[in-house]
Structures are given as C-alpha cells and as structure tokens.
Description:
The longest helix has 32 residues, at 32-63. This protein has three helices and no strands.
Amino acid sequence: MRLIGLVLSLGAIMWVLYQSAGGGDAETIVPQEHIKSMEKAENVEQSLQDAAQLQMKQIDELSQ
C-alpha cells in the first residue's frame, strides 16, 4: 500500500513539475517568422527540383 502511495505521489510531483515547465506547449510553438522561412525554403527547393527535371527531360530529348 505504501508503494502505491509513493508511486502516486511521485506521479503527482512529476505532473506538477511538467506543467510548471510549460506542459509541452514550448515544444509545439514555432515562431511565425520561422514557419514563413521554412515555407519559402520549400518553394525554392521545389523550383530547383522542377528546373532540374526540365533540364534532364531536355537532355533526354536531345540525345534521342
């Protein structure tokens, strides 16, 4: 019985500490500027991939 009480109290203490540290909210908050930068980087990457595919297609057409 003491063991169960000890485990429950330890769990309650850990929960209070977790909540006081932010409760996981800090892990999910990404500044809006970073999100915009990541979207721009994805767009640039997609543009580069499209250009590379177009060049490879043109090279294939020329070699045939």
